[in-house]
Amino acid sequence: MSFSDTGALLDVDFLVVGGGLAGLTVAFVLAKAGHRVRVIEKRGLGVPAGGVRVPPNVSKLLAQWVPREELLRIGTPCAGTPLRHLEDGESVGYLHWKADVMKELGGDFLLMHHEDLHRLLYKLATKAGVRVDLNTEVISVHQGSGGVPNPSVSLSTGEVITADFLIGADGPRSVVRRVVLGREDIVEPSCLTVYTTTIPGEKMREDPEMRRWLESDDWPIWMGTHRSICGHSVRGHKDFGIHIYSWTGDINPPAGEETWEDLVPADSLDFSMHTPIVQKLLSLAPHLIRTRLMRRHEVEDDSSDSEGSVSISSLHSVSLKRPEGIERWSDGTSRIVLIGESAHPWQPGGTHPVSIALEDAVLFGTLFARLTSWAQVPSFLSAYQELREERCAIVKTSDLKNARMMAMPPGPGRDARDADMGKNNADEWDEGTTKENFEEMAWVFGYVASDEADEWWVNWGRYAQDARDGEEMKHMSLGFQMMSMMSEVTRESYEDRSEL
Ligand SMILES: Cc1cc2nc3c(=O)[nH]c(=O)nc-3n(C[C@H](O)[C@H](O)[C@H](O)COP(=O)(O)OP(=O)(O)OC[C@H]3O[C@@H](n4cnc5c(N)ncnc54)[C@H](O)[C@@H]3O)c2cc1C
Fold first, then answer.
1. Cα-atom radius of gyration of the chain, to the nearest Å?
2. Where is this region: Disordered (predicted)?
3. Cβ distance 290 to 262 under 8 Å?
């Protein structure tokens, strides 16, 4: 992006609460644009974590910041997803993540370890001049008031930091979210607990069957009753990350909190009824990180044991239907905003939470890289949410439904799922299936967050700049009217496509 059309960058101090993946990414993008940014992160680097999925919509952004070879050192391009029964390991189907299709969509579908991605973003942010305070917790957030609009935070050390603008990137249990909502977050336990672990590769190598999985580029899913287990190699085939998705009806009562800090012994779950390879893998788990999905009213939580129709193509992409009831992501003073999971908490261990959080960060950062006046801020904040909320909601709902589909109990629904998975081997896609799958994949993976922000600027954002000068207010309202018309059109087209 060129700054020649934007004038001088406004001198702003950004404070980011939460130095996770979204927080470090937004800090990096803002600092690269010339802003001053400080990040407060309550934990350190190298905390327990597992595998994450980095699809093309985000790997292509990362590849603009670091050489692809560096990404391939920490990420493995995913070849496909073998689908198997958890009870006996029987093969049900195989879903190809075709390299040529991913290339067409602009990036690799990478399998990584959370820690490696976190360290990469930390390095990028600090090199760009971001100050990151690790092991420092924000305990409260204060809006500006009266003539002083600046927000501030209190740290556990007693220190108070004031900034020009505050970004809440502090995850699902966000302290910033409470201030933006103006009330306590209303949550209740959902029907899903996810257990995450990393199996040391050196132990897997001693067993030929486990070594094959460690060296494979696949991301297998074992599908059981109220439980599914997936895994993939991480750290360039050095270790193996595993998630266990446990739904109501699996262990009773379901347990856990909405946190990545709850370590429980590996024998907290019974694996004795699973296929031997899964038992062997989990016998090597050092511990499990237990994370509960909490329900919020806007989360469409498919908690029933629905046996409705399913389609393997939905694994590739999403059901394009828009849930209702999304909250505002910025506060009334227009000085505090939420990004990533603090804006839209996600199912732990999903396919898309990392990519969607990074998209938020890049889109927000690209908009605010244009900031030349405080008068632009309300329009930038509206644009950020307008451009992001529908996509986030659609992908989130689909991610959860796909996870649910992997843990169906025996019955006609599960039989239909298996039949569908079996016949849809991607090697045998006919022309129609290929086209349909490609269109849906293109919607998810072809997205470029920075381009969305730039396009908004070119089409509408410049009018906000005119408005700042007090000359052409009418352009801004026209721009917003047209933007909301566009949004209606887009929504209709999503709804049309959901019937495909
Ligand atoms: C330690 C950790 C390990 C994870 N491991 C995996 C994994 O293995 N697989 C997977 O699929 N997903 C994992 N996730 C979730 C994944 O990172 C998110 O789904 C996704 O990246 C969205 O990121 P986010 O930055 O919005 O939120 P998060 O990743 O939740 O990051 C929020 C950050 O804010 C910090 N924070 C929270 N409250 C405060 C506070 N009051 N003061 C200061 N800092 C605060 C947290 O420590 C955290 O670093 C993990 C998350 C964390 C925090």
1. 23
2. 410-430
3. yes
Cβ of 17 closer than 6 Å to ligand 1, yes or no, is yes
Distance 425 CA to ligand 1 centre (A): 35
Residue 263 phi/psi, 5-degree rounding, is: -95, 130
- Asked if residue 257 belongs to a domain, the reply is no
The 3-state DSSP class for residue 128 equals coil
pLDDT band at 322 (very low <50, low <70, confident <90, very high): very low
Question: In degrees rounded to 5, what are phi and psi of residue 28?
Answer: -60, -45
In a domain, 207, yes or no: no
For residue 302, being part of any structural domain is answered with no
Residue nearest to atom 41 of ligand 1 (CA): 138
For residue 357, the CA-to-ligand 1 centroid distance in Å is 10
Do 223 and 413 touch, CB atoms closer than 8 A?
no
Q: Is the CB of 260 under 6 A from ligand 1?
A: yes
349 lines ligand 1 (CB under 6 A): yes
User: What is the 62 CA–ligand 1 centroid distance (Å)?
Assistant: 18
* CA dist list (Å): 97 to 241, 421, 437: 19, 14, 11
Q: Is-contact 9 371, C-beta < 8 A?
A: yes
Q: Is residue 350 part of a domain?
A: yes
- Using one digit for the tens of pLDDT, what is the confidence trace for 343-395? 999 999 999 999 999 999 999 999 999 999 999 999 999 999 999 999 999 99
Residues of the domain holding 39: 13-186+311-498
pLDDT of residue 119: 98
The confidence score (pLDDT) of residue 473 equals 38
316: tokens are 């590739």
- Pocket lining: 42 vs ligand 1, CB cutoff 6 Å: yes
Write the DSSP symbol of residue 104.
H
364 CA distance to ligand 1 centroid (A)? 18
Calculate how far, in angstroms, residue 171's C-alpha sits from the geometric centre of ligand 1.
Answer: 6
Q: What is the pLDDT of residue 276?
A: 98
Residue 295, helix vs strand vs coil: strand
Decide: 132 in ligand 1 pocket, CB within 6 A. no
Whether 19 lines ligand 1, by a CB cut-off of 6 Å, is yes
Asked if residue 18 has its Cβ within 6 Å of ligand 1, the reply is yes
Supply the angle between the helices 449-456 and 56-65 in degrees, to the nearest 10: 80
The tally of domains found in the chain comes to 1
Q: From ligand 1's centre to the CA of 19, what distance in Å? A: 8
Q: Tell me the CATH number at 60.
A: 3.50.50.60
Does any ligand 1 atom lie closer than 6 A to the CB of residue 231?
A: no
Alpha helices in 446-472 (DSSP H): 449-456, 462-468
pLDDT of residue 161 exceeding 80? yes
pLDDT of amino acid 97? 87
Position 483 pLDDT exceeds 60: no
- Determine what percent of the chain falls in helix, strand and coil, rounding each to the nearest 5: 40, 20, 40
